[in-house]
Amino acid sequence: MNDQQLLRYSRHILLDQIGIEGQQKLLAARALVIGAGGLGSPAAMYLASAGVGQITLVDNDTVDLTNLQRQIAHTTERVGQPKAESARQTLGQINPEIQVIALNERADEARLHALVAEADVVLDCTDNFATRHAVNRACVALGKPLVSGAVIRFDGQISVFDPRSGTQPCYSCLFPQDQKFEDVACSTMGVFAPLVGVIGAMQAAEALKLLMDVGTSLAGRLLMLDGLYMEWTSISVARNGDCPVCASGAAK
């Protein structure tokens, strides 16, 4: 690291669990953020400020006026612009030293597989089960840790699905892909603005911990937040031995 980097990241370097070695891991790391909206905005902004060397943003939507209530990577002047590009501009203003790749596309299964293969950690900041399951399948197949978050109304949840150990559950163990779950849209149900900031920031925290191999991740646990009463609930999540995604040989 040069002198400017030592200064920029000095508050991380002061932490015994991180130090120069941990910060160098971040500078060399590649994060894939799928979704540049309510969750993806704070998640990507904290990854950028922390110095993750390469951040790839994937989103096929454009900035709408209704997004600005909670999607803090975007501005009024960028209404109508692709969200991925708008977020790229914001991350560049936060930290011009990192590489930010903006992909204005809706990645299909094959494309997700290629993108996940190039990442060290994946953050699922999407809002529909089909994409979440596609991302999960790619992460399991390629052995990449997945940080998953979701928010609707006053309720938020976050967990980590890490296939590298071979013993932890995947997203499909918790929400089986062969069951029907109704996608609930913010446009019809609403969402409490600060809650996406809370969960998105936690996704960044979990991703950074995974990249630096510090602390204990949320793998095997689902944290749920009731934003009205500000109460957290932690649920243990076990691996499903019959999971069609992560059971032995299923992802091959």
From TrEMBL:
It holds the Pfam family ThiF. Keywords: Nucleotidyltransferase, Transferase. Residues 9-245 form the THIF-type NAD/FAD binding fold domain. One of its GO terms (molecular function) is nucleotidyltransferase activity. This is Molybdopterin-synthase adenylyltransferase MoeB. The lineage of its organism: Bacteria, Pseudomonadati, Pseudomonadota, Betaproteobacteria, Burkholderiales.
